[in-house]
Amino acid sequence: MRKVRREVIKTITDYRAKFGHPSLYSDSFTNHAANEYAKFLLTEEHNEDSLQQIAEHHKIVGTQKAVVGFSYLDDDHDAGDLTKMNEFMDAHGLLLELQEDMEQITHKDYSHVGIGFAANKQMVKIVELLSARPVM
Fold first, then answer.
1. Which of 57, 69, 100, 121 has the greatest CB tally within 10 Å of its CB?
2. What's the CA gap between 78 and 40, in Å, rounded?
3. pTM score, two decimals?
4. CA–CA dist 110, 114 (Å, integer)
């Protein structure tokens, strides 16, 4: 999933640069929290309290803004494709097409991002956790 995460961060960085905003920092704790929240969203609806509990469990400080994308898998999806890179990139790409999500991703105040992935037999979910934290 590292390759998919790198591609997502590269895309976010490119879009933020178009608005004159700096790239986002990524850390493994936030990535783990984003993965856990993505798995949660495979069976549950978005829930701020659950997101906050997951963030606290992973020692993430500050308020997290979850931007969530998904893509349904085709019936003929290759079950041997464990990374599902194309499907996750499709889910991320849909976020860039929606104005509200694009505004969050490119918002100048955000400094950090965590990227999480989850999948089942029907769909893939990508969670981009955005937050504003001090940068030293």
1. 69
2. 24
3. 0.90
4. 12
